[in-house]
Amino acid sequence: MVKCENKGKNLEMCNCSYEGCPRKGLCCECIKHHREQGQLPACYFPDDVEKSYDRSIEKFIETNR
């Protein structure tokens, strides 16, 4: 992973509740990872939905209807 000069600032806005995430605060790495998985990152979901760890596009659509 790359070093990010914005990591501290990104962490202030990051709502990812997965404590062991090595990409937390590294938005570029997070987006890349979730895109490869066919998912969206935590920041696309409200906190209560994000905690379910269902980051699917289908869940995003369901949540935003």
Short descriptors:
about 60 residues, mainly alpha, about 45% helix, 4 helices
Structural category: mainly alpha
Number of helices: 4
Mean pLDDT: 94
Give the overall form: globular
End-to-end gap: 35 Å
Tell me the Rg in angstroms: 12 Å
User: Can you summarize the main beta sheet?
Assistant: none
Helix share, percent: 40-55%
Count the strands? 0
| Secondary-structure element pattern, one letter each | HHHH
The portion of residues forming beta strands comes to: under 5%
Low-confidence stretches: none
Would you kindly provide a written description of the structure presented here, covering whatever features stand out?
There is one protein chain. The protein is an all-alpha fold. It has a domain at 39-65. It has four helices and no strands. The protein has helices at residues 7-13, 27-36, 47-50, 57-63. The longest helix is centred in the middle third of the chain and has 10 residues, at 27-36. It is globular and about 35 Å long. The model has no long low-confidence stretch (mean pLDDT 94).
